[in-house]
Design goal:
Shape: elongated
Strand order of the largest sheet: 5-2-6-7-8
Order of helices and strands: HEEEEHEEEEH
Helix content: 25-40%
Radius of gyration: 23 Å
Number of helices: 3
Number of strands: 8
């Protein structure tokens, strides 16, 4: 019985070896992050804001989302985010709003009571994708809720796009990064008008 088992094991190993030698070489996946320069300059403004971010379900996947023909989304198996995309988006928005508002007091939800948040910003990103070599798109809805109970909230919608420099995935990442920066600039401008 053990000889039959050994022969079966050897045949199985030989079969696996033959199959693996016939399989084409698959490329290694590339992983991406958004690039943010460190800004060590002290901030003059003591304004405190908190951001709460939601993203569309299709942006929760590690594969990069590309816009296909018509209403199709394609996921690139070999081009992935190195970290959770929602977390990367939050990091960029915190960084960019800190620069735009000249304040170190930009917090991610949930924040602490002692942070004394003056404006609660709800950001719902419904689209962040693009077509390689064409355009990248960001669609978002924001609601700025002042901490003062007498003040009313401000709701804005954004439909932003930018030309992608080439058909490389890295240029799509750079375009998405620029769109997040523009969103932060718009949010900061809305806060400053309140």
């Amino acid at each position: 019985m053990s000889i039959i088992r050994q022969l079966t094991t050897l045949i199985f190993i030989g079969f696996l070896t033959a199959c693996s030698s016939l399989a084409p070489d698959t490329p290694e996946p590339s992983y991406y992050l958004f690039d943010t320069p460190l800004n060590g300059n002290p901030k003059a403004n003591k304004q405190s804001v908190g951001i709460e971010v939601e993203v569309a379900d299709y942006l929760h996947r590690p594969q990069m989302a590309l816009r296909g023909s018509k209403n199709q989304i394609e996921f690139s198996d070999y081009h992935r985010w190195a970290s959770e995309l929602r977390g990367l988006i939050i990091d960029m928005l915190v960084n960019d709003l800190s620069i735009e508002l000249d304040s170190e007091r930009v917090f991610e939800y949930p924040w602490r009571l002692q942070d004394k948040v003056q404006h609660h910003i709800k950001i719902d990103i419904s689209r962040l994708d693009g077509r390689l070599g064409e355009r990248a798109y960001l669609q978002a809805r924001t609601e700025i809720i002042p901490n003062e109970s007498s003040a009313s909230s401000k709701i804005d919608t954004y439909d932003l796009s930018i030309t992608i420099a080439s058909s490389e995935h890295n240029d799509l990442v750079l375009a998405k990064r620029e769109l997040l920066k523009r969103l932060s600039q718009n949010i900061a401008a809305s806060i400053q008008k309140l």
